[in-house]
Design brief:
3 copies of one chain form a homotrimer. Chain A has about 325 residues and is an alpha/beta fold. Chain A is built from 12 helices and 9 strands.
């Protein structure tokens, strides 16, 4: 009996971190989404602020720059009345060779209650858990994971589609280098969806568990319930590491015509910032099919919910 | 009757934005100044804070850098208990070619209540009004307008002179490239003043409605009730786009002697930051004629009043 | 009698600034540490926040970059409910030649209650006192002083050793260019300690009052009650302005073996950020001898106490 009880307890125990979806159950994700729906109501009020995290200090530690993601987390934290310590690797002694560990331990000594970490080296947030003993939220580590992006994507899809059970979700672009694709390929199947990852052969990984890979855009989009275009890194393109713009557009740009292969009301997602007229036909982003702004708005609600679950659950 | 009523309603309707002074009446500016005088009282208390904007989020979006103006707005917003989202173009995905519109729509999706926008391209704040549907405050767009600077100038002048009715205000320097000059030339005549704009011929625009232009410093300063020196951009000077320092000083520096042409108690203004011993004789900035620090202090009161009028009036 | 009374009154009067320890008595430092111990208790609560400085505005003015010190002060201020205005010289009109004085007077006009100033030019915080008439905290000026670092060092030493009376404290490294060494050599003797400053001959100043200077590491460490390693500036090393890494390590690195010359439980301090395996054997920083993280934690309590003493005592 012992082992069974322990297993059951583990499965109902609240996760202490959000590194990826290892250790998260479908029920836990759904519970998080319930909280996020309450946060959406807060965000529709004139006074978009709750006292839930008064006196808590949330550190955003961005070893890799990302203004949008950092602002989204910081605003979410402040709307819950937390204090925010904002650390950016680029302007700090990191430039002088201080290690990730020393930096995090120094911040920790100032009395931090939760960490939001963005870093170009995969696995650093996992190490941070061992170093810090505080809730850690992965805001993107290398190509590995970007779980709050996947959560806000799933939340936005659920809002539009009602359920993800049996739905076909096509993700298109540079899959190989995309933490967004990897996190979605982990989370969406957990919620019942079938995930298709599509891009040029040079931009597909060998395999990903639970996801289907294809170079054929038509196959990916055919009867899809939703389509997600990923951001291409033009810097990589300019270095010849990606197909050229004309090649990519010819084969993989999401156009109105190609979107017609998907179900008639299939929504279109993009994690932003967009390269207009590259990943997708420019005007599609403003069409009623687009969830692009809704994704950003839901990012607030989802990130508030994540902070709430990880911090208040531990008091 | 209908049209007349509508016109009257429009003229008493509170402005929704502060882009320039189009759509602002003298009565509306005076009402704003009444609020600013209340804010001055708040700023003289030990606890310089009011709860008026609790739960509101004000975004400062500076596509062009300006630390002083940004800090002034952010402190004004926080002293009214608003949350502040601080976006700086230089450190963001703007560098990767994201458009003004995409950036603003992304921030807007996070739930922003008002925007403070500084940008080197004239007209972007006007476009932002169409994109966002939220109050927009222009914190400087190209050479076009910098209305809160003109408001704090006018407010400081009224404080010293009692009225602007029939007063002669001389503005001296690089008029052509100055949004400060343009906004003052719009606002001060609305409040009854006569504005003289003075500088070398190469730095004067063809014409400006409601203002008088002259290259003759003596003509501009003669019997003036107040003198405003503008900031010269030394970078432009070094490139040969402006007169040389010695030439400028010889013709247009405000010295104690030249200030003697104006009325005996005429105050001296400068929007800052000053190039000492260039636009004006260094010690003049500390003389009792100088309003330079008073302008900065009034900037707090005026910006708090602007935020209050645009945000609380809309609830 | 008059002069005696005045002297007594002066000695019990609360200091208005923290520039260095001129004008601070031992009793005043001990009173500050009592407040810091109360702040430590606040920092151990789930709600690490007190309303003591509500409505006050603290400006952190960093003409020289230092992310860690700036964050420590800003978090301390916000945990006392102050508003923080964060000014960094690098991103401002300072780059355009604005003087320290003009910058500070401009910020002051916005209504600042206390200043935290970091600057590479010694003496600027002293000048700021004359310009501003508000409490000024020196967060490091050139090689001259860094008093809050010395306070947190002394506070951490007292916590571990109980008293500093008659204790031998060895400070090792680039003494010549170290404001941390100078401030410790001023404060620790005031609290009864004997300070030894040790480094290569080229990195020792001619003399320092109240401290003993030696190039002999063994002499400095022998029976020491505590050992403090200073940060070396590798940039200076690379330019040939310091001994080479191998030379420094051979003569002055704090190793486990050399730490054995000190008393058996003598703690090891470092102001951070560390160059691991240069100033000290890497693993020593994590040993139970190390106070490195405790120093950072105490930095919060001490800086909260400094702000409290300088601001609330003046109301």
């Amino acid at each position: 009996m012992g082992a069974g009880v322990i297993a059951m307890e583990q499965s109902t125990e609240k996760p202490k971190h959000l590194l990826d979806f290892q250790g998260w159950s479908r029920a836990q994700v759904e519970s998080l989404f319930e909280t996020a729906r309450m946060m959406q109501e807060v965000l529709e009020r004139p006074v978009k602020k709750v006292p839930a995290l008064t006196g808590f200090t949330v550190a955003t530690v961005f070893f890799e720059n990302s203004t949008r993601t950092r602002l989204s987390f910081e605003l979410a934290a402040r709307r819950m009345s937390a204090d925010v310590l904002s650390f950016s690797g680029a302007t700090s002694s990191m430039a002088k060779g201080e290690s990730y560990k020393d930096t995090l331990l120094t911040l920790d000594a100032m009395g931090i209650d939760a960490y939001v970490i963005r870093v170009d080296a995969a696995g650093v947030p996992h190490q941070a858990v061992r170093w810090l003993g505080k809730p850690v939220i992965n805001a993107g580590d290398g190509w590995r994971a970007h779980p709050t992006q996947a959560l806000l994507d799933a939340f936005s899809l659920l809002e539009r589609l009602g359920t993800l059970e049996g739905k076909k979700i096509a993700v298109v672009g540079d899959i190989l280098h995309s933490r967004v694709a990897r996190s979605n390929a982990e989370l969406l199947p957990m919620l019942g969806a079938e995930v298709w990852l599509c891009g040029p052969a040079t931009l597909l990984p060998g395999e990903l568990p639970k996801a289907r890979l294809t170079t054929d855009l038509r196959e990916a989009l055919q009867d899809a319930d939703a389509v997600m275009a990923l951001r291409l890194q033009k810097e990589r393109m300019d270095k010849g590491l990606l197909p050229s713009e004309p090649e990519y557009i010819a084969g993989y740009q999401i156009t109105r015509e190609r979107l017609g292969w998907a179900k008639p009301t299939a929504p279109l997602l993009h994690p932003g910032p967009m390269n207009r007229d590259l990943e997708l036909e420019g005007t599609l982003a403003e069409s009623e099919r687009s969830l692009v702004e809704r994704q950003v708005a839901n990012g607030q609600a989802v990130r508030m919910a994540v902070l709430y679950h990880l911090l208040v659950g531990r008091r």
